[in-house]
Amino acid sequence: FTEFLNSQPSRLRHLLTDSSYDARQTGQAYFLQDSVRVARTLSLDLGLRYELNSVPLDFFGTRDPVLRQVDVPRPPGADSNNLAPRLGLAYVPESRWPFLHKLFGGGQTVVRAGFSLQHDVVFLNMLTATASNYPRALKYDILPPASDNIFPQLQPRPELLPPFDPIRFPFANLAADLQNPTSQQWLLILQRQFGS
Asked: Which of 77, 86, 132, 88 minimizes the C-alpha distance to 112?
């Protein structure tokens, strides 16, 4: 604590560039659904959803040829195969056999089943890791004794950015074949009415 009060830090990190960013992303979703009564005791609900979500440009990977020369990957493309089917059915079992007729209640039982596939967007909290990539957030570390007694009189920001150095400026990135998260939902319900 005395080092802090005496302006003798163990390290002084100076941000050379503003780390603010504008991450725009376009999302589109289209959905078709229909209900069909196949028989007196069977109904189907059919649906299909398509989603397309863009990846915020220049946040995941780079298009800059200088950065590409030191193996910083290209940005991933949009995951464009996000078809999500939905299927539901409702079946009222009927039987002429006395035991099954008594068990199902003659129209008092419904079996419902369903399946759906859902796609999510790439979590935008990943932007916080990639927002510190070159050239958005350049940091300059000053170590003792050069860091003694210089705060708050920090060095002026440079007019030109230093060239990219993969050792000095690590580059966080995601996989080039980034896929949107997917989940499946299954449903099976047996409803039986008791009494009249």
From this structure: 88
Q: Residue 124: what pLDDT?
A: 67
CA-based nearest residue to 133, from 77, 62, 78, 79: 62
What residues contact residue 114 under an 8 Å CB cut-off, 6+ apart?
45, 86, 87, 88, 89, 185, 186, 187
Q: b/e string for 142-175 if b means 16 or more Cβ within 10 A? A: beeeebeeeeeeeeeeeeeeeebeeeebebebbe
Alpha-carbon gap, residue 188 to 194, rounded angstroms: 20
At 119, the amino acid letter reads H
Cα gap 98→23, rounded to integer Å: 66
SS (H, E, C) 30-68: EEEEEEEEEECCEEEEEEEEEEEECCCCCCCCCCCHHHH
DSSP character string of 109-120: EEEEEEEEEEE-
Tens digit of each residue's pLDDT (9 = 90 or more) over 22-80: 677 788 999 999 999 999 999 999 999 999 887 776 566 677 787 777 777 777 777 78
Specify burial of residue 119 (Cβ count, 10 A radius: 0-12, 13-18, 19+): buried
Report pLDDT digits (tens) over 115-173.
999 988 776 667 667 777 776 777 777 788 887 887 777 767 667 777 777 776 767 77
